[in-house]
Amino acid sequence: MLNFEFWNPTKILFGKGQIASISREIPAGTRVLVTYGGGSIRSNGVYDQVMAALKHCAVLEFGGIQPNPEYRTLMEAVRLARAEKAEFLLAVGGGSVLDGTKFIAAAIPFEGEPWDIVEKGAEVKSAVPLGSVLTLPATGSEANPYAVISRSERGEKLAFSSRHVYPKFSVLDPETTFTLPPRQVANGIVDAYVHVMEQYLTFPAHAELNDRFAESILSTLIETGPKTLADPKDYDARATFVWTATMALNGLIGCGVPQDWATHMIGHELTALYGIDHARTLAVVAPHLYRVMKRDKAAKLLQYGERVWGIREGTEEERIEAAIRRTEEFFESLGVPTRLARYEGVKPETPKLVAERLEKRGMAKLGERGAVGPAAVEEILARSLAA
Amino acid sequence: MLNFEFWNPTKILFGKGQIASISREIPAGTRVLVTYGGGSIRSNGVYDQVMAALKHCAVLEFGGIQPNPEYRTLMEAVRLARAEKAEFLLAVGGGSVLDGTKFIAAAIPFEGEPWDIVEKGAEVKSAVPLGSVLTLPATGSEANPYAVISRSERGEKLAFSSRHVYPKFSVLDPETTFTLPPRQVANGIVDAYVHVMEQYLTFPAHAELNDRFAESILSTLIETGPKTLADPKDYDARATFVWTATMALNGLIGCGVPQDWATHMIGHELTALYGIDHARTLAVVAPHLYRVMKRDKAAKLLQYGERVWGIREGTEEERIEAAIRRTEEFFESLGVPTRLARYEGVKPETPKLVAERLEKRGMAKLGERGAVGPAAVEEILARSLAA
């Protein structure tokens, strides 16, 4: 097992009616800026619940944070928060609203150009405290220090991380997700699944417990994903999915193990170039990456196939291919394509273009061993474009 | 899934050489009281590593905290800490040192008689901050808010819990545990195993992920326990065991599920009466409790048998008995007896005596449904004394 540090201070308030608990988490009189997205929280009752829980606070609002949150939009919120002296940010929405709010929180006290935080990795020395009400289970942003921000006029989508932007608390009420469109639920399942794979499908590191935890999340997603898609109001299935997505990326299963994240880095470029949903970029990259990197990942692919999919027969080569195929079939069964060829407007030169963009960002050696270089990136995307 | 709140702010510093990291976690000049037990940390090098990491602090020491830490001893430390104005407590040792130090931390600023914290559940409004260097994996005290304190002259062993006594950080260096006596390692395996069972072996609550996490810990203990007992210096096996014991009682697997804890409550009385090691009391109670309560626990006993032990054949009755027997065989294989009859000096009237003591403490309705009453307690202990 590798050495590790694990610290996750976010308080999780999970279950029916938990939005009301916010009133205990924010001191009376606090100037709270509530951030949200396109306004679906107004139609599904979440907005009203949040406002009722904030009666003891001075509330400001900032709506309109888009999927793949835009730097320009977020900077408007920063100006508002600075002008109004917001003391606490409450993000109400999915991963994009949460990620965007983390950026706002870090940008408010930042001296200089806040875009440097994502582009140049400028140090975040402090942040305005934030909490969240999660309405779209997927990214794990509700209990981690990560955020991904876009600047579409430059074709950029970049991540940052800071211990200062862990939410102080996150409310996860599965009932608030009942009205999500099926496409977003399917995306969330794939997103959570690939989060686990990035921390699991590398090489064995004698981290038996965390391997089993990772396999537990994968098996639960396979079992619960189709169930919660078929019956969105099945509380227990949805609750299991919500909790699973949080556990997929709260840092726990990444303890003591090598990690990959190449699928995400390649995927971010596809979103930046073509606006493809984040989870959908993962689904068109991951299976092909596993095939291209199967020598490096052989031992874990075999373990994954056996423990998660029950694949015990055939040569090693056959079992590896079967494990990857089952993964593809699972994503496709959720309505999420596993071929880049299925998206219109993707240029034939995309593989080379993405490889070059990553190289330019200093990401020429992705993967758990730095072996996912430009040639591998090109091959992965060429395969995904071919079939 | 039941509603839950999960918050665990302890930072885990895990791996070889991590004691040195303490220097980053405690500000320079802090007045640190280092607490420990019988002095084994002096012979195994841990003491020297800790002192080297605390060079930037003003260090005080308090040794001699015994297994089942004694109120009287801990109050000596409280007086020392108050007199010397200790600002931080660093517990170096196993669960007893950690539990004792949590009590010291809560008692220092407590107004009134600190024993009220455990006996009367008096509110802990604050505590001196504490950290830990764990040298005995077992209790999970390194990452939870619980502590159990004894007052042997009154035959008492009682627990308390407070959010203020979560360690700020805990160092888990598996190498510091290489020199532990096999008996303590075996005890630790059983302790961690039963911690999981108390949060798992109840009734199904549609908490699929946490069930799988619990089963992951049990399977890992079954796999790694004998390995780490046989070869204490196998780093990866020991590291896996250490991490497993932490995850068994850091609150995570208890999220959203019913819990039992009757085995622990009955066990504490046996330690208070006869001084039997904590883990060993659990091993003489748990299997008999599962048998006596098998109607209530049938669904989970069957799930446990199938997923953890691979038991798929026979009637339900047979599968349940097989699952309990495999549990007993596992404990016995570690050298931990599963019959109270194996301990000398245990009086024949013990079942009745323990039932009465629990009743007097307001614990007449233990278990996930409150169904472990005096009659069940008597039957459980009578069976354990009989065989």
Structure description:
Chain A has two domains: 11-176, Rossmann fold, CATH 3.40.50.1970; 182-386, Dehydroquinate synthase-like - alpha domain (Dehydroquinate synthase-like, alpha domain). The first copy, chain A, is globular, with a radius of gyration of 20 Å. With 387 residues, chain A is α/β, with parallel strands linked by helices. In chain A, strand 6 (146-151) and strand 7 form a beta hairpin. Helix content of chain A is 48%, strand content 12%. The model of chain A has no long low-confidence stretch (mean pLDDT 97). The longest helix of chain A is centred in the middle third of the chain and has 23 residues, at 208-230. In chain A, helix 4 (71-84) crosses helix 5 (95-107) and helix 7 runs parallel beside helix 11. Chains A and B meet through strand 1, helix 8 and helix 9 of A and strand 1, helix 8 and helix 9 of B. Strand 1 of chain A pairs antiparallel with strand 1 of chain B, so a sheet runs across the interface.
Shape of chain A: globular
Give the CATH superfamily of the largest domain in chain A: Dehydroquinate synthase-like - alpha domain
Reading off the top of the CATH hierarchy, the class of the largest domain in chain A is best stated as Mainly Alpha
Number of helices of chain A: 15
**Measured distance between first and last alpha carbons of chain A:** 39 Å
Structural class category of chain A:
alpha/beta
Uncertain spans of chain A: none
